[in-house]
Amino acid sequence: MFSPLTHSTRTRSRPARPSWPASLGLSLALGMAAPLALMPSAPAQAQAIAPAPPLTPDTAQAFVDGRVPELLAEHGAPGLTVSIVADGEPLAGAAHGVADLADGTPMDEGSHALPTASIAKSFTAVAVLQLAEQGEVDLHEDVNTYLPEELRVPDTHPGEPVTLHHLLTHTPGFDERTDMDDPEDTAGQRDLAEFLRDNTPERIFPPGRYTAYSNYGTGLAGYVVQEVSGVPFEEYAERNVFAPLGMDGTEFGQLHELAQEHDLVTGHGPDGAPAALVHIPLVPAGAAVTSTGDMSRFMLALLNGGELDGERVLGTESVAMMLDRQFEHHPDATAMGYGTYEWRTGPPRGVGHGGDLDGIHTGYLLLPELDAGVFVAVNGDDTDPEAGAGLLHDLRFAVLQAFADEFGPADARTGSEAAPEADPGDDLSVYSGSYVTTRRAVEGTARIITLFDNLAVRDAGDGTLRVRGVMIPQERWLPVGDGVFVGQDSGERLVFTVEDGRAAAVYLDANPTNGYDRTSALAGPGLHLITVVVALLVLLTGTAHLRRPRGAAGVAAAVSASLTALACLVSVGLVVYAVTDMNRLQDWVFGDSVVLTMPLASAVPLALTTAGFAVTAWVRGWWGEGWWGRIRRVHYSLLPLAALAVIAVGVQYGLVWPQG
Questions:
Q1: Residue 440 bridge partners (DSSP)
Q2: 33, 4, 9, 441: which is closest to 190 by C-alpha?
Q3: What is the DSSP letter of 30?
Q4: All domains of the chain in start order, with CATH
Q5: pLDDT for position 546
Q6: Residue 290 vs residues 67, 266, 279: alpha-carbon distances, Å
Q7: Are the CB atoms for 374 and 84 separated by under 8 Å?
Q8: Among candidates 180, 174, 166, which has minimal Cα distance to 32?
Q9: What is the pLDDT of residues 366-414, one digit of tens each?
Q10: Cα→Cα distances 489→49, 390, 466, Å
Q11: What does the alpha-carbon distance between residue 357 and residue 50 come to, in Å, rounded to a whole number?
């Protein structure tokens, strides 16, 4: 999925939601877009199931004409289009609902163009692998070999260079960048090279250690294609990827420009309002349009080893590299391919990619063992909050899941499995701790991501784990061996990596594109939240000093304390408000707004002034004719300390100093 892009000092409007489906751009927590695999690899309690029906033109058409419109009605999105391929040919396609709520235009799978969002990353991977086949690039060579000096990746980890392999598997170790150019400021918009030059991310992990979904990384891989081939990336993809496959309705470019040439569907928010077409400087990461028929051709080419209608775009070995496991957290967990990721380990195994922009959600799923694939695009957010089982289950994923359940149920390999059982005698303390998302920013207000996208893992004492987190079902987590735990009710899986006898990271099997690495207790968001709550309770008592202060100094001290408390309370209140309105939070975080930073920025001088009054009160206890009694002095002294505690937490999340 496509998430907000990278650092800029220019004015921006709200960008596309990322994967966090993760419109999971502010990570999964903020409901932005982040790619996710939403098909549990192994149910907590497998059941005997009826054999899957054969996938034929008739059964496929029955699915798209019957089950798909049922799901559309359940989720309440405006419309969707879907296609199914198998055995080397298109089997079925259909469109349901409307392409634009404003005029009621019916969705048409034959004529409407669709923003791809991050599905475009699969196209970019094809381009990179073509150059690797030709010997023009080496997937395991330092990527700086192919870049001009101004775009080179810093040597943050000497001896551990970032490679194309890392870029294609989202393992370069880059921090998350969330800024985008203003789509209305045409003069200030940058091309791919300019944006990459201005926005080099921090390398917060050694390459190959963790996945951390990176639009910047895919953009950089696309620039390598441009630099090595000597032609603009968009032109290279048209000549070498789309034209040979007969994908006449697919091309890279800015959506507002492509909309002039293609009958583009309108994206919609939960309220039905049309979503704006954003400007995406990192074109290879998600700036493209396609059609339902073209995606069928793309899936058929991948299932056929890179060839379609006698035209070959990739060799069979390269296609295998796209679809096979190129980076894994754990041998039993979903893994990353090149420009793809596993939706489930199977069998039958599922692999593909998803994409998200404001009001647009796309995904394709291949089941190579069945020689089958499905593509779906939805032009709006779910409006029925009860339709899905949580943030990971929107209409797009519901369709893909239903297809897999219908024609290739994952547990058909065994028929039945024993449910995992907890042993109250097990010591699970090795897994206990605080973990924060690996897809995180290190500067700006986007650091607020980790305040919400984190996990608190505790040994429940009965042989199970207790896990708290926005993306995690509230249930018992039962061990199934080798660091793998299964949700008792959901069947979702948590997979831990253990180093030196202690869990270093944990992954939700539904999302191989990023995980959660262990952080210290002092740096854990849980402790920060407790600190803020306690500090606010202290600050709320600061109004007591407004009652009958004596003398000018007493009045000034009381006013200073009250303003300090007010600034802190307003800051926290704004964050709480924003969390209840993710669109508002995205506006503030991605638009260089000072709304989130100004309250605590003003609290800094106020807190220092209040601290000065507190010191004076102790030095000159007689000041104010006894108004500064010992108890009052102790209480007053706690106020600047509480404010400074709130400010210190705010600093951790970029909520103090205005950005830009």
A1: none
A2: 9
A3: G
A4: 429-519 (2.40.128.50), 525-652 (no CATH)
A5: 58
A6: 24, 14, 17
A7: yes
A8: 180
A9: 999 999 999 999 999 888 766 544 555 789 999 999 999 999 987 643 3
A10: 18, 13, 13
A11: 37
